[in-house]
């Protein structure tokens, strides 16, 4: 399948390891900013892309995507399958066994509602039977795929919107900037004219990080004139320039950390209000980036961000090295929001479309 199909439809185009500890959202959202520069609106500076040599020779695609997904999910798989198999090995699926299965699934981050649904599926089809280990895994993968299937939807980018604006939100450290870089690279390869907006204006390092990626991707780069410049003003100017220049896709980075939730909400809403003054249909996508290693915190983060903005889809990162890949099932069951892409590494090519069956089978260690 072409990469383009993987990532999503393009319509109406004018152009063709170790777990990373992430604080709980309330803490992350309320962490004080050491020094807050006065948030004076500043004229933007359109910085030239940083002159960065091309990334080191990239690893050849020796393993297929599914093999990499499976390898990435291996910690989650081990946790889930070992406990389920040892629980049900040569055992009749009676009430007690099913109750224990439900508890095991909840422990593996699948969430209460999804776990109940899966167990009900088992009860309907296999109650009173003794099942082999392989049957258990296959049946679980089928039940999980049925939950994931409705949310496995590509992010639809419509270049004719000139540009299609994607606002990227999420708690600090979830992978927003990296995901922008990965998406940018993909769509640039499709021939789209891309722009990155460094809306996380408080941290110079965040701006530089995105600038490096812009250089590698040949994306237009819109940076604040100085640290702490008004992010909404930057977004306004960037969108105005992007329209004038006929860009197809504008990816807007945002800060994940402000001194409290209200401040973050106000910042995001202001960005959206101001963007709408340039194009009232924008932002066309609001992508919430979640870090899979945070498990149930990710569920909490969706609730918090849904209150703030109209989230249109999810990206789930760091599935490599997470033992909590089951959380994607909980997210699907609880919110029904589209899961567009998953991240399985730090490199530009480590972002993939979310495929329900592959994910479910990968999670159960099946081919
Ligand atoms: N292993 C792995 N690391 C990832 C993935 N996505 C992002 N990272 C790493 O996670 C760290 C944080 O990523 P960023 O993209 O800077 O996250 P952010 O949300 O922009 O963070 P802030 O700007 O601090 O809010 C970086 O070291 C990334 O390389 C992934 O899918 N897998
Ligand atoms: Mg960032």
Descriptive notes:
- By secondary structure, this protein is of the alpha/beta class.
- 46% of the residues lie in helices and 10% in strands.
- It has 14 helices and eight strands.
- It has helices at 3-7, 25-30, 65-72, 74-88, 95-107, 112-126, 133-148, 176-189, 204-217, 231-244, 261-278, 296-308, 327-335, 356-363, and strands at residues 164-169, 194-197, 220-222, 249-252, 285-291, 313-317, 339-343, 351-353.
- Strands 3-2-4-1-5-6-7-8 form an eight-stranded mixed beta sheet, with helices on both faces.
- Helix 3 (65-72) crosses helix 14.
- The protein is elongated, with a radius of gyration of 21 Å.
- The two termini are 18 Å apart.
- Mean pLDDT is 84; it is low at 13-62.
- Magnesium ion (MG) binds at residues 176-177, 200, 206, 253.
String of helices and strands: HHHHHHHEHEHEHEHEHEHEEH
Task: Name the overall outline.
Answer: elongated
Write out the distinct hetero groups bound to the structure. guanosine-5'-triphosphate, magnesium ion
Question: Strand order within the widest sheet?
Answer: 3-2-4-1-5-6-7-8
Taking all Cα atoms into account, the compactness measure Rg is 21 Å
Sheet with the most strands? 8 strands, mixed
Q: Per DSSP, what share of the residues sits in E-state strands of 2 or more residues? A: 5-15%
Number of helices: 14
**N- to C-terminal separation?**
18 Å
The average pLDDT value, as a whole number, equals 84
Instruction: Please give the share of residues in helix.
Output: 40-55%
SS elements, strand count: 8
Strand pairing plus helix content: what structural class?
A: alpha/beta
Instruction: Point out poorly predicted stretches.
Output: 13-62
